[in-house]
Amino acid sequence: MPINMLKTKFAEIAVCVAATPDTPSAPLVTETAHAAKGYDLDVTVPADRVTGAARIMDEAAFMLEAITGVDWMAEQQFEIVYDYTAVALGARVVVRARVPRATPELPTISRIYPGANWHEREAHDFFGIVFTGHPELIPLLLPEDADFHPLRKDFGA
Amino acid sequence: MSLSHEFIMGLVRLTLYVVGLIAFAAFNAAYLSLCERKVPAWFQLRYGPKEVGPFGLLQPVADGVKLLTKQLLVQKGSDVLLFKLAPVMVITPAIMCLAVIPFSETLGARNINLGLLAIFSFSAIHVLGTMLGGWASYNKYASIAAARVVAQNIAYEIPLLLVIVALVMVTRTFNLHEIVAQQAGAFWHWNIFRLQASPLMPLAFLIFFTCMLAESNRAPFDMIEAESELVAGAFTEYSGMGFGLFFIAEYANIVVGCSLATVLFLGGWHCPFGLLPGLHWFMIKMYVLCFAVIWVRWSFPRTQFYGLLNLSWKFLIPLAFVHLMLTAVMLKLA
Amino acid sequence: MSIEAQTLHRETFILNLGPQHPATHGVLRIKLTLDGEYIEDAEPVIGYGHRMHEKMGENRTYAKFLPNTGRMDYVAAMFNTHGYVCAVERLAGITVPERAEFIRVITAELNRVASHLLWVGAFLIDLGGFTPLLYTFDDREQILDLLEAVTGARLTFCYYRFGGVCNDIDDDFIAGTRKFIAHLRSRMPMYHALITKNIIFRRRCEGIGPISAENCRKYGATGPVIRGSGVAYDVRKAEPYSIYPRLDFNVPVYGQGDCMARYLVRMDEIVESLRIVEQALDRLPGGPVMAEKVPRILKPPKGDCYFNVESARGSFGVRVVSDGTDKAYRMKLRSPCFSNLSLFQECSRGMLLADALALLGTLDLVIPDIDR
Amino acid sequence: MWNYLKEIFSGGYSLLVGMWITLRHTFRRPVTVQYPYESLKMPARYRGHIQLVFDAATGQPKCVACMACARACPSNCISLEGHKPEGATRRVVSKYTLDFTSCSLCGLCVESCSFDALEFSKDYNLAATKKDEYVMDLMKQAQGKQEK
Q1: A and D touch per CB criterion (3+ pairs under 8 A)
Q2: Which structural domain range is residue B199 located in?
Q3: Is residue B136 part of a domain?
Q4: What's the half-sphere exposure (Cβ side, CA atoms, 13 Å) at B315?
């Protein structure tokens, strides 16, 4: 599936924001230069629609490369980043979702991509992000009794 | 109480033989284990042990001393009696088997009429020993190995015995001494080349050799101590001389197997060219076979367990049957 | 019914494979639920070698993180460093001199050969054959000697820098590499005769541990694993980087998806990598090996970027998020082994223990790369 | 039936080939180096632990205690002190300690040095029985080497 078709599909579920107060709000789906960014499409979706995004990617035969978080302390938000790559196209799509730091919850995509299971557990380890509906959200890389989340910016090193 | 002269002499003779055989088994275990390290070292472009003694010749002594100084740990929950009995049960039959093997015309502990049967009945015990050792260890790896050893040995006993039955039909005796005596002369008199009895004789030798490898649990059939799967298999929990006895038994079994192959197929103490028969020819043949055993081990990967059973049931047993039939037909026609 | 009663009823037992086990090549533990020797469930338990490299990437400067990269996948350390420096260069907009790009490709491909040779030996150990390991080590050692002469280390090379490489290669290296290429090419028929054609090896590999292309995609398995399942996915072709688009090489693909296919992919990749090195040596341009005007303390502009390289084990990705300071705001390291191992649980179901270990071997795991 | 026999022969042949290959290797020279008796010469770029470079003319370390190496070190294992003797034009190092327990031999310190005052030692026999032995006083070590 070419990038522009994906773009229209993602436009339906992406977060809509206005660049300036005067302009009409537009979905946050940006085509980026691969040479500069390393990915071709940058999509931001609401947290509860990551499964929808995963479904679009699955239909387009994309592969899930990684799931990771970014702790935006200043905005009191976690950003969850999904990296997809198309085996046939060599195209790469980044799906982002933001959740509040206080209640970091979003649905799991491990039913669509079983490989997401470990990535989500890892993100849960490092950031404490809760993936609702995940079959076993227990520490993967950290000790099984770990109650800290080292990649949070307020975690004392 | 008066003891007759013959009885005392018999007792002395017996003691000497027992000591001699144990010494022979231990010596072989020591130096075959050195070979087991030196030979692959040559294959693998390295030197092997060379620090202890000249060319590492005292390495087995060092190994033995190390094993003797180690404590035999018994795991909590294991069956202590069986756990300690198993190594003995493995090594005793191996030494008993040596008793009936005629090393030369005159050298042999016991020349009994049913020598061949004696060997096969004794060698079945070591399977039981290994199985019990694995079972009594209270270790999952050892238990899996215990189950494997039984399945493997049952599968390989059949082609082995079929080949032996065919051979016995040809030789018409169970007496090992007599079997060798029948092969006197140059190498075309040996059983392996007795093509007039059955044209498949060389194949029968290969089947025998393969089964011998499998029976003594040697690579590529070392399923019971497959170290990349089962850590050390049935011997996982054994330490010190408990392990040492299994170790000696493994090499004693190789010696028994190779001796038997020499006796049954390669003309025992007879020279290939009909010259100077004697102990040295027996030893040369036996150690060449031992070298082959080591050589095979260090050349191939391990078989998979079903591959091992497939080999036995789908290839060795049918071939052994064909060989048996052919021998029978040839005997009838002759 | 209690858990114990259920277990009794199903007559299964749990076997802890590892963390110290000969077949796991490191501190990987696999919790096996076995029914006899058949695997009902295999749950990999990882994290024993976890060092939180991602946090280290956040609390030290970009340059100081360089040594860390070699310590994740230490068997193929060049690739991790390659991915990392390329990601930072992309973010900071540094262009690398041509000669440095060539040297990077030459050393990286040599490292790939070394890694694959090590894998072949280690895989044969998993299958119970010891001798091939020593032969491959002998050949691998020669690569390490070459790389040591250039980089100063045998394993954790730490050779690439932002904007180039830290040392230039000399004529001895070029001559030695050419000699090595000829040597390894002459050794390949020996390996095929000793290993590939061996009946026992073939029986252990053909049809064992099939992984479907669909499973590879769902689990994100890359590298020789996905190429052994019939998908010609290679980052060097899909998202060309460095000078790879200018080189002529094939991506070996085998469709069976079994252990044999993955083995053959790696064996062919050794040959292809030798071709790449040879071409790169032929066309090696002169000039500097470091970009000029690379600041000592690098402060990339705000933003994020992703860079992917084809490591010996699959696609190794680095996502760097910069907030404009001299330290990364977030550094995500996507290790190929992590994804490759994650499909083990599904694919090993119903297999025999020994076959599952062959499957585990063909995934080519480097445990510190999984744990990071 | 034909395939069955073919399999036996091709399989058996492959085993013989394997055995022939291992046997052939027997006649090649071993490639291993017998370490305590013979040791390899390290290549010129070998990254061992660091040591101070001495100026051949003055016999003093070239180091000016600019702290660049200590700053470049990812593991903070270098600590050094320097002072400026009266009348001298530049600072000299008075104490240079390398905590080898946390050194990762990355070589960033040598790269950061603008005075060529650091080099890699080619010594790789670094086994010790106590942790303290790895806290190396490079000044002392260098003096010891000079006296030799």
Answers
A1: no
A2: 76-333
A3: yes
A4: 23
Question: How close, in Å, is residue B309 to chain C by CA atoms?
Answer: 13
Chains with 3 or more CB pairs closer than 8 angstroms to D? B, C
CB pairs under 8 A between B and D: 33
Rounded distance between C-alpha atoms, residue B200 and residue B204, angstroms: 6
> B114 with B199: CB under 8 angstroms?
no
- Per-residue pLDDT 10s for chain B (334 aa) are 566 888 888 888 888 888 888 888 888 888 888 888 888 888 888 888 888 878 888 888 888 888 888 888 888 878 888 888 888 888 888 888 888 888 877 777 677 888 888 888 888 888 888 888 888 888 888 888 888 888 888 888 888 888 888 888 888 888 888 888 887 777 777 777 777 777 778 888 888 888 888 888 887 888 777 777 777 777 888 888 888 888 888 888 888 888 888 888 887 787 777 677 778 888 888 888 888 888 888 888 888 888 888 888 888 888 888 888 888 888 888 7
Residue in C with minimal Cα distance to A37: C305
Q: Is residue B61 part of a domain?
A: no
Q: Is the pLDDT of residue D114 over 70?
A: yes
In chain C, alpha helices (H) = 3-10, 53-58, 66-69, 77-92, 98-126, 131-151, 171-191, 199-205, 213-219, 224-227, 235-238, 259-282, 336-342, 344-347, 353-362, 367-371
User: Chain B partners of D29 at a C-beta cutoff of 8 Å?
Assistant: 45
Q: Which residue segments constitute the domains of chain A, with CATH numbers given?
A: 3-132 (3.30.460.80)
- Cross-chain CB nearest to B45 (options C125, C129, C134): C134
Of residues D18, D30, D32, nearest to B300 (C-beta): D18
Which residue in chain B has the smallest CA separation from C203? B307
Q: Are strands A77-86 and A92-100 parallel, antiparallel or unpaired?
A: antiparallel
Taking the domain C6-371, which CATH number applies?
1.10.645.10
Q: How far apart are CA C187 and CA C197, in angstroms?
A: 15
Q: Does D8 sit within 8 Å of B46, measured CB to CB?
A: no
Please name the member of B227, B300, B302 whose beta carbon is closest to the beta carbon of C22: B227
Instruction: Assign domain D50-147 one CATH number from 3.90.1150.10, 3.30.70.3270, 3.40.50.2000, 1.10.760.10.
Output: 3.30.70.3270
Residues C29 and C17: beta-carbon distance below 8 Å: yes
Residues of B in contact with C127 (CB under 8 A): 228, 301-302
Domain count, chain B: 1
CA B187 to centroid of chain Cα atoms: 23
Give C55→chain A minimum CA distance, Å. Answer: 6
User: Under an 8 A CB cutoff, do B295 and D22 touch?
Assistant: yes
Residue A148 makes CB contacts below 8 A (sequence gap 6+) with A142, A155
Q: What is the mean pLDDT of residues D57-61?
A: 74
Strands A62-72 and A105-107: unpaired
Tell me the pLDDT band of C181, cut-offs 50, 70 and 90.
Answer: very high
How many angstroms separate the CA of residue D121 from the nearest CA in chain C?
A: 11
**Residue A19 — very low, low, confident or very high, per pLDDT cuts 50/70/90?**
low
- Reported as a single tens digit per residue, the pLDDT across B304-330 is 888 888 888 888 888 888 888 888 888
Cβ atoms within 10 Å of C57's Cβ, excluding its own: 23
Query: Does B141 lie at the interface with C, CB-CB under 8 angstroms?
Result: yes
B252: in domain:
yes
Per-residue pLDDT reduced to its tens digit, C68-96: 888 888 888 889 899 899 888 888 888 88
Write down the pTM of the prediction: 0.88
Q: Which residues of B touch D34 (CB under 8 A)?
A: 47
Cα-based angle D53, D55, D59 (whole degrees, multiple of 5)? 105
Q: Where are the domains of chain D?
A: 1-29, 50-147
CB contact under 8 A, D21 and C151: no
pLDDT above 50: residue C2: no
Chains B and C are touching, with contact defined as 3 or more CB–CB pairs separated by less than 8 Å: yes
Whose structure tokens read 């950061």? D112
Neighbours of chain C (3+ CB pairs under 8 A): A, B, D
